[in-house]
C-alpha cells in the first residue's frame, strides 16, 4: 500500500492533467473544421515553462486582467489541451488569437512556436494586433496536445485605459487558410484603418497648422492642426510596437497628451466661434503642466484612477466649449451650425460608447468602432475647414481683381480727363473739371477704398486698398493744381521714403537743404513723387542692399535728386535692357514730361545710382 505522501504527490500531478482533459472537451466548434477554446488553466509565473508547482485555476476566455486580476501583473501562463483538428491534406493548422495584451509566447507540447517580441521591459506592444500562429505539423500529436501561452501584461492600476490592461481573448484552432481571412479582416479594422486615419491626420494637421500660423486671422486652423497631430500621436503605438522606454513612461506620456489635446480642442472651438478668452488662455497651459505633475506625484500604481478623473474633467471642458460654439453659431444664424452640431454630437456619442464599453467590459468591438469615429470626424472637419479657407481665398482674389480693375478704370479716366484738359487750355473749364474729378474720387472711390481698408479680413486686399487710396490722394492733390513749396514736398518725401526703407530693414540716409523758398507745380510734385516711389521700390525689391542714401539739392535753377544704394547693382546681361526693367522707362518718361532727365548708373556689385534733374522754372510752369 502506498503511503500518504506519494498519494498526495500523485494527486497533484494528475489533477492538472485531468482538468486539462476536461478543458479540451469544452473546446467548441466555431465553424467547419475549427475549434473555439473558451476555457484554460491559468497560473502566474515568469519562468520559461508552465509553472507546474504554482496553483493553477480554470478561467473563462476572454480573460480580462482588469477584472480577473486587477491588482496583479504578469506574466501569466495559460494552458489548454486539444486534439488535432481535422484538416484537408497538406493544410497547416493555425492558432488564431484575436487580442492579447501586451505580448505573448506560444508553446506547443513544450516547444516554442511563436514569439510576439520582447517579453521584458520595454515590452513589445501587441495590444490590438490579431495574432495568427502556424502550428508545425511535426509537433502535433494525434492524441492530446498541450498548448501553453505565456502572456506579459500590465495591471489595470498602471495603465490609462482599461483596454491596455493585460488579457487574452478566445482561442481558435483550425486550417490556416480559413483563419488567415479572419486575421486579415480584424487586422484591417483594428490596425490598418486606424493607421491610415492617423497618417491622414498627421499630414492634414501639419498642413493646417502651418496654414493657420501664417494667417494670423485664422488661428483656429492652427489649433485644429495641432489637435489633429496630437490625436495621431495617440495612435503612435500602432506604428512603434517596441519603444525604447519602460511601460510606465510610455503610459505617462500617452496620458499627459490628454491635457494638450483638450487645450487645442477648446481653443479651436472658441477661436472658430470668433471668441478669445483670457481665462482659457491662462488656465489651459497651466493645466497642461498640472496634469503631468499630478500623475508623477500619484505614482504609476494610481495612474488609471487619476487618468479617469482627469478624463472626466477634461471631457467636461471640451463639452462646455462645444456648447458655447454651437450657441454662438446658432445666434449668428450660420449655415454650418447643423453640420458642426452633427459632428460634435457624433464625437460625444462615440466618447460615451467607449467610456461605457471600458466600464462594462465584454467585446472590444464597440470601443474599437468608437475609436475610429473621432479621427474620421476630424478628417471630415479638416476637409471642410480647408474648403472654407479655399473659398474665402477665392473670394478675396476676386475682390482684389475687381479692385484692381476699378483702380485701372479710375486711372484711365483720370488720364483721359487730364489729356482733354491739357488740350483745351481753358482755365475755367480746367478748374471746374479738376474739382469735379477730385470730388468724385474723394467722395466715391476714396470712401469705398477707405471702407475696404477698415473692413477687409484679408491682409492682402487691405494693403492693396491702402496703396490705392494713397495713389488716389496723390492724384487728387495733382488735380487741385495748387503749387507746392519745395520745402514741404521734401518733408513729405523724406517721411515716406525713410519709413518704407525702415520697414524693409534698409538703413536710410536723407540729405536736403533747409529753408527752401522755391515752388513746385502740382504736376511736378506728383511726377517726382512717383519717380521717387519707383526708385525706392527698386531698392527694396531688387537691390539686395542694406543702405540707401537720398541727396536733394538746388543749383543753377534746377532741382536735383540723387538716390543711391549699396546693393548688387544691375547684372551685365541686363545692362543693355535698363529701360525695359525695374520701371526705368517709366521714370525717364515722367522726367521727360517735366522737361528734365533721369539717368541711371550701375555696375555689378557696386550698387545703383539714379540722378533726377528737373528745371524749377519749367516745373513751376508745367500744367497739371
TrEMBL record:
The keyword Nuclease does not apply. One of its GO terms (molecular function) is kinase activity. InterPro entries: Galactose-bd-like_sf (IPR008979), HATPase_C_sf (IPR036890), HATPase_dom (IPR003594), His_kinase_dom (IPR005467), Sensor_HK_TwoCompSys (IPR050482). Its main location: membrane. It is found in: Cell membrane. The chain crosses the membrane at residues 192-214, 221-240, 252-270, 282-299, 305-326, 338-357, 369-386. SMART domains: HATPase_c. Residues 436-618 form the Histidine kinase domain. Gene3D superfamilies: Galactose-binding domain-like (2.60.120.260), Histidine kinase-like ATPase, C-terminal domain (3.30.565.10). The keyword ATP-binding does not apply. Residues 393-427 form a coiled coil. It is a multi-pass membrane protein. Residues 1-32 form the signal peptide. Keywords: Cell membrane, Coiled coil, Kinase, Membrane, Signal, Transferase, Transmembrane, Transmembrane helix, Two-component regulatory system. Pfam families: HATPase_c. PANTHER family: NITRATE/NITRITE SENSOR PROTEIN NARX-RELATED (PTHR24421), SENSOR HISTIDINE KINASE NARS (PTHR24421:SF37). This is Sensor histidine kinase. It comes from Rubrivivax gelatinosus.
